[in-house]
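Hi support team,

I'm opening this ticket because the web form for multi-chain structure prediction keeps timing out on my end. I have pasted the exact lines I submitted so you can reproduce it. The total is 756 residues across two entries, so I didn't expect it to be a heavy job. Is there a limit I'm missing, or should I split the entries? Thanks in advance, R.K.
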Amino acid sequence: MLNTFVVYVENKPGVLNRVASLFRRRAFNIESLTVGHTDKPGVSRMTIVVDTDEQGALRAEANLYKLVNVLLVNNVTGGPAVMRDLAMIKVAATPETRSHLLQLVHVFRARVVDVAPESVIIEITGTEDKIDGLLEVLRPFGILEMVRTGRVAMSRGAKSAAAAVGGMAELAIPPEMRDDEDVSYSV
Amino acid sequence: MTKTGGEIIWECLVRQGVKHVFGYPGGAILPAYDAMTRYPIHHILVRHEQGATHMADGYARASGGVGVAIATSGPGATNMVTGIATAMMDSSPIVCITGQVGSKLIGYDAFQETDITGVTLPITKHNYLVTHADEVARTIREAFYIAASGRPGPVLIDITKDAQQSSCEFEWEAAAPQLPGYRPDLSPEPEDYDHALSLINTARRPVILAGHGVIISGAMHVLRSFAEKSGIPVAPTLLGLGCFPASHPLNLGMMGMHGEAWVNKAIQEADLLLAFGMRFDDRVTGNVKTYAPTAKKIHVEIDPAEINKNIKVDVGLVGDLRQVLQHLLPDVESVDRSEWRQYIDELKGDSAVRDIQNLPDDGHLYAAHVINDLWRETHGGALVVTDVGQHQMWEAQYYHHEQPRSLITSGGLGTMGFAVPAAIGAKFARPEAEVWAVVGDGGFQMTMAELATMVQEKIDIKIAIINNGYLGMVRQWQEFFYERRYAATPLLSPDFVKLAEAFGIRATAVSQRAHVVPTIREAREYRGPVLIDFQVEQEDTVYPMVPAGADLHNMIRRPSPIVETAQDV
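Hello R.K., no limit was hit. The queue was backed up. Here is the completed structure from your submission:
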């Protein structure tokens, strides 16, 4: 089963390596991993998709927390969340096939971002299923090249994971001086 | 004040309370070594960097503080890998400082360049590459904090040569750790406490499994109160030995692959297991599918990633063991569990008859005799550091530990060569302790170069080599599982007595049982290092034994001299 984790990390050298190494070391299979900046300087956000069962997902989460540079882990698999993948697909297009292609692009609410004499680049954003669907209908035209970003995810509603990270950043005071309210962890 | 990065290293170590550093100099760490002479820290020159890490590890385990090892880049750093992995598996807090080539040379395969932060990524709790002098202080403070807090572990700091050479403003206070993502201070939910208490107070056949965490969190007293109040018997793991007095009537003895047969049977028949600071390692569970099938399980553990990792539990209490037990104790009820304890006592059956201590003297010298005599002669008061293999298990079985931190052994990684350097580290941590390294003839030869370190530092350690001419534990597996095909296990050793004498160490060889006690007495009376070469029975076997992956209750037991049946072997 695919589990999607949203992970906030300190933007320190090697942090991507630490996360990837953790999954390799614990024999988890990463389906996709995306990383980018957040609105908060020094904090990056990853979306990691892992093929594992429920127990494995709990283990992955607990192990992610053991990484010193990991600020917050959120498994958004069960709850309501928006999941998106972006793909750019270069398809062979002759003057004869181009209009048919454009129709399909319209149906899938994709966009043509480049037109060349013998090809077009189509950009599509959506769930993996939708992109797979478009790929299926484009295949007969001849797919010349394709790139996908891998899944990014965000929970629905006003609840903000970023706010929690903001809260954690305030803890960047010396641990010995920290006012130690206990943090609860439920298994 | 302005300091070089190299000076800041020692400024920080002094402020962290470091008195001893185990290390080996080299090109990329030279600026730090040059600054060292101006600081009140005793540097112990080792003979191999692996030794430095084991010494730091032994120092940490004997003292409860943080051990420090230092080495140069490249081979100096890679030689530390085994010691770091050992500390990682056994949750031992050490800080390793390595030199690195200049920051401008990183990535160009410079002389003695190794990506040591990359190499040690999966075997450190955390590691750092420091390329600027102004990062040194904060990094060292964070490293000590991370190494010692939560579930302890090794932290490596790789510092480039230019970061050691260049200068910056040094301000200790301003360099406080900034670790927003690091939370070692978790505590359980109230409802989990309630659930645990209801299981504890209603259990009829409970067993406490006491691990290394009891010692690390300093929970010995509260564990004892807990066990005495509830009447629940205690079974320690290998690394838990000493966390609960061996002579205490509630102490069942060690569990696991070479644990006592009745302890494993009691675990298999229990209705509740209380796992305190242990991690259900495969060496204590045997086949996890048939492990304690009738027992509910409560796991008290500081590392959330250990809960439900090997064994699915009913309640996981994540937090510091001492605090959790203190929280539980007032609500733990005194229940009469004498019937259950008596039943376990009956499970012992003919174990005493099978015990090698009770077998008639056949003129041979057995390792178990040596270790039992050592226990008796030292009144159980020595700090014993073992290597890995048969002698390690015999030590666990026949040296009865009353005090925490009186046994130091490589449990998780099973690192041969650990004993001699770890004993050196332990002796520096506790100079008043009587330190014995109990080591096999194989493991001894892996790190025996550190004898020179012992002599150079004039420290008083007694070394007992359990010499059976084989890589004994491997030979035992070959005997049981490979039809006695002893591939590469017969071991030729030098004359250990002459070898020790070449180092300037007093030495004796013993091959008769009658000479064991007098030789131990002589060694104890002598002020200075002594090596004793105990030439023991060659094809002796550690009993009982759970074959790897077998059910915990299906142990191979020592053939009884009275009823020897096929079932026994």
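A quick check on our side: The first helix of chain A runs from residue 15 to 25. Let us know if the file doesn't open in your viewer.
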